[in-house]
Amino acid sequence: MAIDGNTTCAVPGCGALISGPNNLCNEHRLPGMGVRVGGSTMVITAWYAEHGDEAGVILLNDWAMGAHFGGGAGFEGNLREQGFVNVGNLATPEEVEAAKKPGRGKKVGDWAGPWKTQYPWEIGSPISVDQEEISSEKDNA
Ligand SMILES: [Zn+2]
Fold first, then answer.
1. Could you tell me the distance, in angstroms and rounded to a whole number, from the CA of residue 30 to the centre of ligand 1?
2. Which residue in 52, 65, 77, 125 has the fewest CB atoms around it within 10 Å?
3. Distance from the CA of 78 to the center of ligand 1, in angstroms?
4. Separation of CA 27 and ligand 1 centre (Å)
5. Residue 113 Cα, ligand 1 centroid: separation in angstroms?
6. pTM for the complete prediction?
7. Euclidean distance between CA atoms 24 and 43, whole angstroms
8. C-alpha distances in angstroms, 10 versus 17, 59, 75, 79?
9. Where in the chain are the domains?
């Protein structure tokens, strides 16, 4: 089943066969929750992450993890590059539930939920550039 009727692993160059709701082969597969979206299936993986005094659970489907990151290790590395620490894959529903309750000194980050290509702290100067453009337009008027 998988995404778009794929029969092989979503990791580029892998080519191993997949089964069930998975988009990743036995070697690249990570535990997660199988879901059906229209005619496609995928496995949603959950990741614990911390940023500053915040903690939360980030979700990513297995197809995106394979196609964009080459598997779990690549995605974990990407989260670290995005500024997260103590990143880890959550293997069981119990681990996911426990991770939703932050430990001492932590609060739930508003970034928790589906993975984003960019988080607020990654956004830099574009906002100030926009303001300069607005002020120069006023000068011309
Ligand atoms: Zn594979």
1. 11
2. 125
3. 19
4. 6
5. 25
6. 0.83
7. 9
8. 10, 17, 14, 19
9. 3-140
Distance CA 10, CA 30 (A): 13
> Ligand 1 centroid to 81 CA: how many Å?
23
Q: Each residue of 5-29: pLDDT tens digit?
A: 899 999 999 999 999 999 999 999 9
Q: Say which amino acid occupies 35.
A: V
- Locate tokens 């199988």: which residue? 34
CB atoms under 10 Å from CB of 74, counted, come to 15
Residue 85 — pLDDT band, cuts 50, 70, 90?
Answer: very high
Going from the Cα of 15 to the center of ligand 1, the distance in angstroms, rounded, reads 6
20 C-alpha to center of ligand 1: Å? 14
